[in-house]
Amino acid sequence: MNLQIEGGHKLSGTIITKTSKNGAMGILSASLLNKGKTIIKNVPKIEEVYRMTEVLESIGVDVKWNKDDLEIEPKKIDLKKINRNSAEKTRSIIMLIGPLVHHFNKFSLPQSGGCKLGARTVTPHFFALENFGIDIKTKSDSYDVSVKKLKPAEFALYESGDTVTENAIMTASLIPGKSVIKFASANYQVQDLCFFLKNLGVNIEGVGTTTITIHGVKEIRKDVTYYLAEDPIDSMFFIASAILTNSGIKIERCPIDFLEIELLKLKKMNFRYKLSKVYKALNGMTNLVDITTSPSKLIALSDKIEARPYPGLNIDNLPFFAVIATQAEGQTLIHDWVYEKRAIHYKELDKLGADTILADQHRFYVNGKTELKPAEIMCPPALRPAAIILIAMLSAKGTSILRNVYSINRGYEEIAKRLNSLGAKVKILEN
User: Do the Cβ atoms of 58 and 82 come closer than 8 Å?
Assistant: First the structure.
């Protein structure tokens, strides 16, 4: 699928933040821990979710869509029938290891895919899960998992990653006793998973901190309904879209705890916005606000902009600053230290008239302010870099074409329709 964008139009109106892709993937995986029926409310209808549900259905899990909700009930799981094509398209497949060790003593999963961002090592998963008595060997196209005897454990993660933290939490949840995970991620999707598991009766302490204590249970058999939390990265997409089009819009249901540093950086860049009072998400836990943007004249920050584990600037929000910086007077340094290849994709902005320097695979300089121009671009094979190209095209006066937008559809639902509801002119062109 391709997109045709007629840029240069101001945006106006209200948009509602969607629930999170990353939260959905963790809770879809965790549903395998529950022998009862899990209903996940307000699930984003995106390619990543479709791939995971295809995998679950192929191994014998009963999966039903009811409008925007997913009903999941594990039956007799058979990994021999796994849909390898779907499994290889999502990196989240690795998060099935934690739940599946409670179903099998020995099994194999296909190697995972997802965004092309360089060396995204899975070693931290292996180092974490070996503490519970799990051995994982990597073959050319699969992970071979064997379980000795599961036992509770206390350990530090090799890396404070989101998916490794979730894998460890899911594993510990069905091991009776106390497990302690140190140097854990406290990011939004980890918190969402913890809230879900607490609804299933697992006692978890330290949610939102870097030390998480799980009091595992012998069995989970409970019919549960859980509302997914909203996605801070979706909120940030529309904040950046407002900035690039110099528009005033209202973005509702923004998870403020995961946007505070981003908004602070933008405030120091002279971005003008207002926040509503805080209110709760439907899960009863996540704090939300409505953000109203105003046209702003931005200036570049003198300090580099880089991501940090929560409560720092979110790694998935960092790319938005690369496109925002094109509209800020002065030079901005984006330091994308986590991934080896992601900053390389930012150079696609030059095709739209941006003035940038890729100093190395991690350091990206943007000289602003520049007037962006239309172009035809092949969508980068990575979700967030692809999203910022689309946002830049909203600013470029004239007609742009963004080809093969599967990367964007992995994480954003009906993005053309949602942008058009704000006054953008985005047309879907089928191949």
Answer: yes
